[in-house]
Amino acid sequence: MTPRAILTDIEGTTSSIAFVHEVLFPYSRARLADYVAQRAADPGVAAILDQVRAEAGAPLDLAGCTALLTEWHDADRKIAPLKSLQGLIWAEGYAAGELQGHVYADAVEGLRRWHARGIALHVYSSGSVAAQKLIFGHTAYGDLTPLFSGYFDTAVGGKKEAGSYAAIARAIGVAPAEILFLSDVEAELAAAAAAGLGVTLLARDGLPAASPYPVAESFDTILPAEAIA
């Protein structure tokens, strides 16, 4: 059965894990302290700092907020104020041409193929929605954001929680059984499958010895053109 919607992860699925960890994270880490110091009075950054204080449960000063954000960054915490700040820093990098979103060529072809067949495409990643749009909006293949109908981050829930996928299905108005979720993480696929979604494991570094889920090494073999009615 051809799904009505495809929900895709980013890291290790549409895009290289190395891009996030070796390009994006070092970029924001190197600029975090100066960015906060220079823009602390900007409404968007001030709101982020208020969120940091709320998370800390303490009236931290600017130095305290910066130190905590840095600690979260180094620990790769999936926490909203950090993700929002990273998104702002990356936005400047993309706008300046210092960053370019990485998307695999086969992923671009697959996304375009499915979109052309009328399958609604959505993203679900631990990165913020703003960061997701930046990656797909600034690629070597141009702006890919018109291909997508919607984006979800951990505001909807954790990626290893079945309830998150049920909530996404409700939000996009498609029955879980008519959604295909793509990820390189089996625990995420288990949660999606528990919510009733179809799933496929992306194994870009080679096929695993065994997996309880359908496996693909690229987007080329997932709903190829001849298989879509």
Q: In what range is the share of β-strand residues?
A: 5-15%
Q: Roughly what is the average pLDDT, rounded to an integer?
A: 94
CATH topology of the largest domain: the name is: Rossmann fold
How many domains in all?
Answer: 2
Termini separation comes to 9 Å
- As laid out across the biggest beta sheet, the strand order is 3-2-1-4-5-6
SS content category: alpha/beta
Portion in helices: 40-55%
- The arrangement of helices and strands along the chain is EHHHHHEHEHEHEE
Question: Could you state the CATH homologous superfamily of the largest domain?
Answer: HAD superfamily/HAD-like
Spans of at least 5 consecutive residues whose pLDDT stays below 50 are none
With helices defined by DSSP (H or I, 4 residues minimum), what is the helix count?
A: 8
Q: Largest sheet, if any?
A: 6 strands, parallel
How many DSSP-defined strands? 6
Quaternary organization: single chain
What is the alpha-carbon Rg in Å?
18 Å
